[in-house]
Amino acid sequence: MTRNKLRAAAMRLFGEKGYDGTALSEIAKEVGVKTPAIYAFYENKEDLFMTVFREAMESYNTYIQELSEEQNMTSARDSLYRVLSRQYEFYQKCPEESVFVLRYMVFPPAFLKETIEEAFLQSDELLTKAIEELIVHGMETEAIRDQPVQPLVDSFLNVMDGLSMQYFYYTSREIYERKLNNAFETYWNGVRSNYN
Amino acid sequence: MTRNKLRAAAMRLFGEKGYDGTALSEIAKEVGVKTPAIYAFYENKEDLFMTVFREAMESYNTYIQELSEEQNMTSARDSLYRVLSRQYEFYQKCPEESVFVLRYMVFPPAFLKETIEEAFLQSDELLTKAIEELIVHGMETEAIRDQPVQPLVDSFLNVMDGLSMQYFYYTSREIYERKLNNAFETYWNGVRSNYN
Amino acid sequence: MTRNKLRAAAMRLFGEKGYDGTALSEIAKEVGVKTPAIYAFYENKEDLFMTVFREAMESYNTYIQELSEEQNMTSARDSLYRVLSRQYEFYQKCPEESVFVLRYMVFPPAFLKETIEEAFLQSDELLTKAIEELIVHGMETEAIRDQPVQPLVDSFLNVMDGLSMQYFYYTSREIYERKLNNAFETYWNGVRSNYN
Amino acid sequence: MTRNKLRAAAMRLFGEKGYDGTALSEIAKEVGVKTPAIYAFYENKEDLFMTVFREAMESYNTYIQELSEEQNMTSARDSLYRVLSRQYEFYQKCPEESVFVLRYMVFPPAFLKETIEEAFLQSDELLTKAIEELIVHGMETEAIRDQPVQPLVDSFLNVMDGLSMQYFYYTSREIYERKLNNAFETYWNGVRSNYN
DNA sequence: TATGAATGAGGATTCATTCAT
DNA sequence: AATGAATGAATCCTCATTCAT
Prior knowledge:
Chains A, B, C, D: Pfam families: TetR_N. Four copies of one chain form a homotetramer. By secondary structure, the first copy, chain A, is an all-alpha fold.
């Protein structure tokens, strides 16, 4: 119980204030426990952080994995849009995990640099593959103009990354949703075939 | 002299390791001076940080401002592309400033949250206006299909933000350049008129 | 069972790393038990230490006591030599007890200073008496030159103390045995009568 | 100034209470300074300890070195006796250094084991050589019976080691001096020639 | 302008100990 | 007899900051 509450508090605080900006005492206090209690569950600050990091990554990867699984029946347009809105959903449902992942993906603490690079590459590959399938499927059904696939994947990922950043500095829901839709629409215009 | 060296070192270190992760002693050491020397030039850590922050923002804003100024003669396509490549140039020429701006734009330390939000909004407005002009110009010359402007601006900014993030986690130059070109091409495809 | 294993582990670790340098958790771990289990058998760290201390002293004293008991039949030379070799035997058979006794005899933790001084004096007296008897016996049989007894006792104890220290910093068996024999030989030369 | 006072306080406290039993705060308090001030002069606790250790060793070695230098004119008996009384002098003049050296020679903290063994061997060799010269000199002048040298060196060192230990647990000056004289007398009886 | 000395505040971590189970 | 959870006290150490020089 305490173990999990600690994990949750750590996720939130590390995400919000950074590794160095978060004192173990704050995490403990948030859980209603004294600092040394943390050491009953985690070896040290790094260990707590790593545990949280792994959990956040897993949570994020799970969400990505599920993309490939539900793609099937829907149109390419819908399923690509679905990717963006699922990402948005994830940010809303798991704001702590999201901030955490984003923060440490881009600005890992020194001791995590390598681990994170690996985790990132792995995650990136998964996502790339999922998007690729959707796009290929779109070409097969002629929703997307026939053309080299990689550029379309690249630019879709670019849209996603852009939306990631923007989620965190446009706090207004409406503005974000507008941006999401507009970004997607332009992307779709750029890739779709002229038949529909 | 020392004052400037301190600013530069602070820029680099605050950017790389974060506000809390950077000790004044590290900054001093990088400059070859003892910690208390810092206090001859800056009131305290926050002051040093703020100075650096203002400088980075100014550097970034200058680069944006210049966008509007040189837009004129070239085609809309070229000038939009120019925006992306200038951003890229900025990242390459001023990597310290870039990391710094990106980091504190997205993850400001608590005491800076408000200041940064203002600075961000201001900067964002500048950029938005500049892009808007380019796009309107593009429509006037019929390079861009006639349509509401805001969505095109939104999605261009989205492309830019995406490229920002990607610059920091795709370390390979080639990959990044490919991604930049692909993102732009898709964007352009999505907005251009069918005449060219 | 556990009680004894704890005692043994404590003996070894307190002897090797000192009172302050040994954490209860180490002792527990060596026994394969969690720290609080110690409190089922011992009141606290001091109590455990004292128990161990008493045991080590008893073990040491027993060995000394036995000296007097077997002295009888043999020649003075042999029985004095026997004292040194029995001390050596003790070090080899009970290395933990030996280190422990030596360490806390010379460097008792503050809270034990008085207790240990008493224990030491008592032990010293026992030993002194035993040696004295051997020497007197040696004079009676004219193996040892007739002369005041105390100086001979003093210097024999000095030889013993010297060998104690040396045992702990000359790790090589051979060197130690050589030193033992040489020390004894010189001593014997210094005290023996000229008849043999 | 503070640096030296710290060294002195550390010498005393480390010697008296052991490495783990001595808190930096105690050392600081003895000097009339707050704990962090220590870090202006020493890297950390180990560094302070090592500095003190080196100083104590040097002090001890110097004393040994001087033995060889003044040996010349005096009789072998006098110069050997001189060694013991100089050792005694050293204990009295530099009680802190003495306790320190003895304690860590016999019971080094784990992180010092190797360093100390080296230091010890080196010191031991110096001393051995010095004693050897005195004894050889004694044989040349026929004060000492002609015989193999090593045993006489061994047993003299044994006497010295014995007196080391005894100095620390016989607190009475008179008793110690008696023991010193008696030990020496017996030793000398054991080695001297019969001519004098 | 720069430094050495010093400090208060705070941070991670260890440890002996307690208590409910 | 043994453990998991928790804590108070203390330890080493870092850091921003001050001040006299």
